[in-house]
Design a protein that fits this description.
Layout lengths: L88 H33 L3 H9 L1 H12 L1 H18 L6 H26 L1 H8 L6 H11 L2 H17 L4 H4 L1 H20 L2 H16 L2 H14 L7 H9 L4 H25 L6 H19 L1 H15 L3 H28 L1 H9 L6 H14 L3 H15 L7 H24 L1 H21 L10 H27 L4 H22 L5 H20 L1
Length: about 600
Amino acid sequence: MTVTPPRTPEELQGSGTPPDAPAEEGSGVYGESGPHAPTSPAPGSPPPAASLPSPAREPDRQPDRATTSAPAPPPPPAGPGTELAPVSRGFLAKATLVTAVLSVAGAVLGLARDQALARLFGAGSETDAFLVAWTVPEFAATLLIEDGMAFALVPAFSLALARRAQGAPGDPVRALVATTLPRLALAFVAVSALIAGTAPYLVEALAPGLPDPALAVDCTRITALCVLGFGLAGYSSAALRAHRRFVAPAAIYVAYNTGIITAMFVLGGQWGVRSAAVGVAIGSGLMVAIQLPSVWRRLRHRAAEQAPAAEDAPAAGGADARTVTLTLVATVLLFALCRQSQVLIERFLASTLPAGAISHLNYAQKVAQIPMTLSLMLCTVTFPVVARALADGDTERARDRVERDLALAACLVLLGAATVIACAPQIIELLFQRGAFTAADTAATANVMRVYALGLLGQTLVGCLVRSYFSAGRPSWYPLATMAVGIIATSWIGVWAVGPWGVSGIAAANAAGITVTAVLLLWGMGPRSVPIRKRRVLAELSRPLRAAVVATVAGAIVAGRVESAPASLAAGSATVAVVFVLLARSMGAQGLVPALRSVRTVTRRLRHARHR
């Protein structure tokens, strides 16, 4: 089999699908028929690097061993899994770009949702009641979409795809769906009903000092419906990402927030803050609907292409069902549940403070978490790559990928955290200070957000590292133990700090607890996960951290000298970016180099598209 090198955008002008793209439908990264698909490696040649290269490694400059005089072995038979050949640098760059763009769109709509909530209902007891009910979708999203189910299902689907590529009897992917989806769907329905039935007890346990528990109970019962929607959405997202389809999974929060915003404006006049709870239920259904066409095409296409023998299907189904064991699901869900319990601790402690404390904490977290969310976009894209590498037995490739992800994610989140800390009052004023949200709410929220941002690096490291523990599809109790230690630290510090410092003390406890968990996860990396080089990673993380400290101070000084909030934010954030990039580059931060290279690549492509 001959591999044609990837062509440049200029070479692709006026042409259709490049010759190296698989003929099969759905081979592109942008959707079901995109033009840039990964290619199969030449026999005897080294596998392509599954990442953006660091300065120390330039795989594109290495000689191709397939072009030497040694006779090449015969090409392998074209199997059903050839569309999932080792990914190229361009594939990851484009997939990350698409995921980031759609995730930013979802985050912007999330800010618009919070702005609408603040404008329509303010930051008082009514909003506090809804935010207690908001605990249900927050937990469900973490358990069923972002962390929990993805950590169990992406490796399972990756292993099924690897078995399919190796010519396993039947279709292991369809067998996995047939044996897991019905049982999980029944479990989602049962949990939804359980939450709705026990809503009064949940509200009492979550916020015993709430002034209007009846309103919180109503909102909790409505939002309980999202468990079914989130569960099916998370299952679909895991299946599509394992197939390297990222458009529909990245767009789910666009659909979700659109449903909430629409419901608040349409029903808010009659139903009050209950309209937001109705929007949560509607939005969860839209998250499923937006992915169904892509999932259906993948399964239907494979069914038409490969009809397994009836006697082979049960054996395949049983083998792949065992990849999603009860122990694996338990370790994954318990970790995600333990991590999300930070929110329970925060709201429990904040419910004893004056009205509005829960709202200030919520708005501060929503804004401060944006840098973390963006920094984890690459990890979302590369998680199936790491899982597939381990399924193929390529530990070195998985290690290199994880180390590069950590370096790049740290640079991105530290740049964002520096901006948030330096320009917190200006950000909150521009986003929320209107309607029922007053200047006093802005000051309180900005103070909390600055403290909360101190834990963003820990949040990001936990998100990156925990994927390594579960990428092999094996149960591991160590992440749960580290998260439990972090939760204990959060609880003790929060109880001690809430008296003298109020909501800021709660945010400080959050930052301290998640940082403890991140340190323990990094320390435990080894045979039980992906064996990264810990000393090298720590040395690399220290470079952008030092640059972020200096950039924060410089940005805060510049922002404080400008009166207008928009001009102050622009001046402060620009100062942070310039100082951070200059310092990080001078110190040789490896995570900065692929980020800048990606920006230049995207800029060139956009410029080329504009001149076409």
